[in-house]
Amino acid sequence: MSFDDLGLGSDLLRAVADAGYEQPTPIQQQAIPKVLQGRDIIGVAQTGTGKTAGFTLPMIEILGKGRARARMPRSLILEPTRELAAQVAENFAVYGKYHKLNMALLIGGVSFTEQDQALNRGVDVLIATPGRLLDQFERGKILLADIKILVVDEADRMLDMGFIPDVERIIKVLPRTRQTLMFSATMPAEIRRLADTYLTLPSQVSVAPSATTAEKVSQRLVPVGGDFRAKRQALRELLRTEEVKNAIIFCNRKRDVSILARSLDNHGFNCAALHGDMPQSIRTETLERFKNGEITLLVASDVAARGLDVVGMSHVFNFDVPMTADDYVHRIGRTARAGLEGRAFTLAAPADAKYVASIERLIGSPIPRLTLDGVAPKTEEAEAKAPAPTSRRRSRRPAERTKAVPPPKTERPEAVPPPDEVEVTHVHGRSESGSVGTVRKSQSNGSGRKHDAEEKTVGMGDHTPAFLLR
Ligand code: AMP
User: Fold this and answer.
1) Nearest C-alpha to atom 12 of ligand 1 is from which residue?
2) 0.85 exceeded by the pTM?
3) What does the domain layout of the chain look like in residue ranges?
4) What is the second-level CATH architecture of the domain 3-206?
C-alpha cells in the first residue's frame, strides 16, 4: 500500500515525500483512512511505529478545511511529557508545511506570554501537557468549546504518571460531539475504562504488541555487584568496548542521573544529564545537543526520555533495571528504530532478579547474559541470587573506539579472545598481571600523597564529592 491510497490530499503527499517516507507504516495504513472517516480510534502502538504521523497527517487534512478563532483551538493533543509534546509539534511542522495551520504548545517551563500570544492568534492545533492546560483553562485564558478532535497520546504513560484524573477533567469540559483518538502502548484496565467511557464506537487499530519491539534489539543482561561503584565500572567497561555512536543511559532515580552524569564526565565521556527536575530551557537545549550529535551520551530518567525519537541511536544502557517490564520495552525501543540495528545492555544486581524475571516474562525469552569479570557479583550467595548466565562468550570484536569513548587513562591489555572463535560475550577486565579487575595504577601526585590514576581529583565546591563518583 502507498500513501496515495490513504485518502490524503496532494499537499500532504508532497510533505510526506519531502520527509523521505516511501510507504505508510502498518499503524498509518490502518489509522489514517479511519481518522479521515471521522471515526474514534483506539490505537495500540508505541513510539517508533510511526503512530504520530498516523494521527497528525489525517488531522492536518481535516483541519485544513476550516479556520481557527482566537483562544478557541479546534483540536487538542494531550501528551504526558513536555518532550513528547515538543516532538509532536515538530511533526506538525514537517507534515503541515504546505498548510497554513496555526499550532501552539502549552507545556510547563515555557513563558505564559509566548503561549498567550499564540493562543490569541487562534490555533488549529493545541498540543499540551494536562497540568499546564488545566492551569490555563482555569485562569480563563483558553476556551475548549470548539475542540473537534481530541488525541490522548501515550495513555498508559499518563496512567503511570498519575495524569488520568487531569485527563478526565479536561475531557469533561470538551464538547460531546467530537472525534477522539486514543493511543497507548499497552491496554491496562484503567485505559480500557477510559476508552469505554469517552470514545464512541471506537475502531481499534494496533500493531504488534509492545513486547515484540524487543526482538529487533540485540540485548544483553550484565550481572553486577549491587554497589554503585561496581555498576559504574561495568558501564565504563561497556562504553569502552562497544561501538557507541550515541546512547541513552537510563537510571531509575533523578538523583542518580546527576551523579552518574558527573561521574562519566569525570572519566572523560561526552555526556549530559536529563531529568524532570531540570529547568525546561536546559532540558530543551540538552535534547537538541543530543539530537544534533554534540552530546553522545544522555543520562536520563524514564520521564525525561520517554518516547524520544533520536534517529540512529546505537545503544541503550539500563544503569538500573526498570521496575516495570513495560518501561524496559520502552527504554530499549529508543534504539533499533526505523529498521536500524540497536543494542541494549542492562546492568542487573542480585536484588533486581524479580524485575528481570518480569521483563523476561513480558518479552517471552531470557535476555542473554554477558559477564564482566571485574564487576560480577562475587559472593556465592550473591551468585546464587543473580540471574544465571546463559552464555559466556563474546559476540563481537571489541569495537573501534568512537568519539564517545575517551582512550583509557591507563594501559589496558587486550580484553577479548580472537573474534572468529566466539559468539556470545565474556569480557575480562584484566589487571596488568592478567588477573581480574580494572587496571589502576597508584601514582604519586608530587605531594607525597598517592592517588588513583584512573580517577580525577575533585574538590568540594559545586562538585559532587569524589567518593560518590568512584
Ligand atoms: P513515531 O512512532 O511517531 O515516534 O515515529 C517514529 C519515527 O518514524 C519518526 O522518526 C518518524 O519520522 C518516522 N516515520 C514515521 N512514518 C514513517 C514512514 N512512513 N516511513 C519512514 N519513517 C517514518
Assistant:
1) 50
2) no
3) 3-206, 217-382, 417-457
4) 3-Layer(aba) Sandwich (3.40)
